[in-house]
């Protein structure tokens, strides 16, 4: 189980209100996609789940309990730009994920636990299609390969919740399609909750089971930072009725840009 609950969440930086009145329950096993204009607070929302950001009001709960103060291995994150360690090989990067999960980086794994971690890391590396590249350093990998490595590293921590912040945004369309084909079965097999920020509504519809849009509903031209973003759409993508709404959201986004 990994139900996430947001109860009347507000995030403010000084005078600027970024998010206001966010109420949301994300059921365990959901693939949730978040869309919204730049600056709407999407990454801020992910940082709340990661535990890197404290709300100025309200509570975020995991399975009904407040999060531990420190981001833990139960939550993993993959950013738009490659977040792997350049001085470690593919295998070294994924192993580090295991060491983090087991020992919280206090010590390196040794002996039998290490042998098991290597075995499981290699299986993950194989699963993301990097088997032949296990001994390469990130600088010798393409963008798509580095992103697959970042996903393998995040998965090594066996997170209950995987956070993806525009993870495929920097990739060419072909590589992006490969990543889509990779992530959906991983999500299904590992029974994780995924929260993915994307600018691509088509991507959201192709992968997610639920879509929310964050946007400001109130605007003050004199003081643009006075109101924060709220949830303006919340769609169950597993229902047929969601498809016509896609065109509507797209038209709205285009009208704004
Ligand atoms: N640590 C911080 N201190 C002050 N302001 C911040 C901080 N982090 C974010 N903000 C502000 O919060 C707002 C939302 O930022 P956020 O990065 O969450 O937006 P976003 O929806 O992810 O945008 P993008 O689509 O461009 O990535 C922005 O106006 C940003 O300047
Ligand atoms: Mg962002």
Descriptive overview:
There is one protein chain. This protein has 2 domains: 1-74 and 159-257, P-loop containing nucleotide triphosphate hydrolases (Rossmann fold, 3-Layer(aba) Sandwich); 85-158, no CATH class. β7, α5 (173-190) and β8 form a beta-alpha-beta unit. The strands form 2 sheets. Strands 6-7-8-3-9-10 form a 6-stranded mixed beta sheet, sandwiched between helices. Helix content is 37%, strand content 25%. The protein contains 7 helices and 10 strands. It is globular. The protein binds adenosine-5'-triphosphate and magnesium ion.
Topology:
Elements (H helix, E strand, L loop, with lengths): L3 E10 L2 E11 L4 E5 L6 H9 L6 E6 L2 E2 L8 E4 L11 H14 L7 H17 L15 H14 L4 E5 L7 H18 L2 E5 L3 H7 L2 E7 L12 E8 L5 H15 L1
Parallel strand pairs: 3-8, 3-9, 6-7, 7-8
Antiparallel strand pairs: 1-2, 1-4, 4-5, 9-10
Helix pairs in contact: 2-3, 2-4, 3-4
The structure holds adenosine-5'-triphosphate (ATP) and magnesium ion (MG).
Question: What are the main properties of this structure?
Answer:
6-stranded mixed beta sheet; Rossmann fold; 2 domains; 10 strands; globular; binds adenosine-5'-triphosphate; binds magnesium ion; 7 helices; 257 residues; alpha/beta; 37% helix
Quick structural gist:
This protein has 257 residues and is an alpha/beta fold. It is built from seven helices and ten strands. The protein has two domains: 1-74 and 159-257, P-loop containing nucleotide triphosphate hydrolases (Rossmann fold, 3-Layer(aba) Sandwich); 85-158, no CATH class.
């Amino acid at each position: 189980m990994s139900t996430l609950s947001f109860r009347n969440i507000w995030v403010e930086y000084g005078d600027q209100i970024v998010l206001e009145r966010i109420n949301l329950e994300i059921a365990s096993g959901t693939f949730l996609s978040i869309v919204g204009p730049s600056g709407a607070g999407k990454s801020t929302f992910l940082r709340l789940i990661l535990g890197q950001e404290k709300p100025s009001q309200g509570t975020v709960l995991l399975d009904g309990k407040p999060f531990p103060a420190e981001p833990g291995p139960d939550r993993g994150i993959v950013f738009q730009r490659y977040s792997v360690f350049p001085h470690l090989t593919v295998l070294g990067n994924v192993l580090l994920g295991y060491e983090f999960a087991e020992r919280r980086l206090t010590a390196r794994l040794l002996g039998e636990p290490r042998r098991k971690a290597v075995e499981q890391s290699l299986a993950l590396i194989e699963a993301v299609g990097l088997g032949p590249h296990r001994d390469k350093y990130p600088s010798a990998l393409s963008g798509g390969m580095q992103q697959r490595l970042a996903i393998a590293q995040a998965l090594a921590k066996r997170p209950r919740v995987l956070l993806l912040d525009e993870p495929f945004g920097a990739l060419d369309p072909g590589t992006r399609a490969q990543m889509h084909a990779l992530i959906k079965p991983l999500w299904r097999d590992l029974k994780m909750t995924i929260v993915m920020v994307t600018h691509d509504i088509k991507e959201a519809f192709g992968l997610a089971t639920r879509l929310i849009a964050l946007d400001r509903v109130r605007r003050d031209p004199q003081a643009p930072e006075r109101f924060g973003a709220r949830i303006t759409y919340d769609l169950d993508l597993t229902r047929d009725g969601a498809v016509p709404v896609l065109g509507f959201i797209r038209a709205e986004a285009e009208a704004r840009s």
